[in-house]
Amino acid sequence: MIELLRTRRSIRKYTEQKIEPEKVEILKEAVLLSPSSKGINPWKFIFIEDPETIQKLKLFKPTGASPLETARLAVVFCADETVNDAWVEDCSIAAIILQLTAHSLGLGSCWIHAHYRMHSETVSSEKYIQDLLGIPAHFRVLCAVSVGYPAKSVKGRPFEELQFEKIRTNKF
Question: Does 39 fall in a domain?
Answer without folding.
Answer: yes
